Amino acid sequence: QVQLVESGGGLVQAGGSLRLSCAASGRTFSSYAMGWFRQAPGKEREFVAAISRSGGRTYYADSVKGRFTISRDNAENTVYLQMNSLAPEDTAVYYCAASNRIGVLRAPYEYAYWGQGTQVTVSS
Asked: What is each CA distance from 39 to 54, 55, 89, 98, 100, in whole angstroms?
């Protein structure tokens, strides 16, 4: 089992940047595929980005491709989401998630472990 704690959210102006971090407990972080999701008020949770266990493969939602970068540091048990060129429509609670499955995973049901979320608000 793994516990996840996100940080790095906040209020930023449109066009700005934020870097989210997700720290994982336990000694087997490298055995988990990781993902970032977000949920805006009144909307369903949506996929943002995913990264494989080794970090060698990544996948992005079309809405963030070219603006967001997911990465991981297995020595530090941390996954990151670098967000550039932020827009008001990126406003949401951002969640990181961990999965025992192999690959880059895009569906929420594929993830067994979730953090508590961190709020990102982008003002226009």
From this structure: 27, 24, 11, 17, 23
